[in-house]
Write a structure and sequence with these properties.
The protein is mainly β. It has one helix and 22 strands. It has two domains: 97 residues, no CATH class; 214 residues, Beta Barrel (Porin). Strand 2 and strand 3 form a beta hairpin.
């Protein structure tokens, strides 16, 4: 089994290894059976094989998810190389084999550590036709033990002499409520404006249910399905459209693979009210971490519509590179 426990901030986490040596500090990660602890007496983090640990205890609070999809909140104690004991917030003591754990992650009760934020920008300029181009991408979220709310956005604006301005802005606000057995309820409001597809505004409210197929700290994969409305207003004299759609979606994330993060999101929409219309959206983002919470980001976003309005392209994509900062 592969899982990771990242950035535990508890004071005086402790690990006992062979010869009863006790390491005291902050457990930062459990990844592929290797525990990493930060101590005051060592300049670099110390990596310890799980088989070498006699016992371990954390003061930092965790969320643990077992293979049945049940979620618990508390502190962790490991005795020996096989069993883990967790004391929950309601004072129950749970016993698990290492291989029975599905996910371990940090959980903080204060607002600051439940809140996440990142944003990056790209800029290019050329003398030819006075070309100026801006791009941006960002994510803001808030997470509790039972639910998460998140908003992400990406956009580009390009202008040059003797041509129309090119613009594209896409944003989603989504909410997920976690259920037993790795199921969750999902709702989302999406927005898109695109000069390429002559879309002045597209609003897509959708609701559905999802299933978490893989959830380790370094790998997450889930699928969702449900229904949505599609409200579209176009530039020019084209009539507005209102359609009902069924959707199927999937999200895949690789987290802290070395200094890299990778995310891929796909959504397929099939119109119920327009028989021959279907749409497809995909987004791929790759980040490389830098010091001081900075990162380099590259992303690709693509939207396809099988039935665009007259004069519009059914394909629209953005490839961007930027530098950003995360909280």
């Amino acid at each position: 089994m592969i899982f990771s426990l990242q950035h535990l901030q508890g004071q005086n986490d402790s690990i006992v290894v062979a010869d009863h040596i006790v390491l005291v500090g902050t457990v930062k990660k459990i990844n592929k059976s290797v525990i990493t602890i930060e101590t005051e007496f060592s300049k670099n983090d110390i990596r310890i094989e799980r088989e070498e640990i006699k016992s371990m205890a954390t003061k930092g609070q965790l969320i643990m998810t077992d293979r049945e999809g049940l979620r618990y909140y508390g502190t962790l104690t490991s005795m020996g190389k096989d069993s883990i004991y967790m004391t929950t917030d309601d004072h129950r003591i749970l016993t698990y084999h290492w291989d029975d754990l599905y996910n371990l992650e940090e959980y903080r009760t204060d607002f600051k550590h439940r809140f996440s934020f990142s944003i990056d920008f790209g800029f290019s300029m050329a003398q030819a036709n006075n070309l100026i181009q801006w791009s941006s991408n960002g994510v803001i979220g808030y997470k509790t033990i039972n639910w998460i709310i998140e908003s992400n956005f990406n956009g580009i604006i390009s202008s040059q002499e003797d041509t129309d301005r090119i613009y594209r802005w896409e944003q989603q606000i989504e909410f997920a409520l976690f259920l037993p057995k790795n199921w969750f309820v999902h709702s989302e409001l999406g927005f898109l404006t695109s000069s390429e597809q002559k879309i002045e505004a597209r609003f897509v409210p959708r609701v559905g249910v999802g299933k978490i197929l893989i959830r380790f700290n370094e790998i997450n994969w889930n699928i969702t399905g449900g229904g949505n409305m599609n409200f579209e207003r176009y530039t020019g004299n084209s009539e507005d459209r209102r359609t009902v759609e069924a959707f199927l979606g999937t999200d895949f994330n690789l987290i802290d693979i070395g200094d890299f993060n990778l995310s891929n999101r796909n959504s397929l929409f099939k119109s119920v009210t327009e028989a021959d219309r279907w749409r497809f959206d995909t987004a791929i983002d790759l980040r490389y971490k830098l010091p001081l919470n900075l990162y380099v980001s590259t992303g690709f976003t693509y939207n396809y519509d099988s039935s665009p309005i007259v004069g519009a392209d059914g394909n629209d994509y953005v490839l961007r590179i930027g530098v950003g900062w995360e909280l």
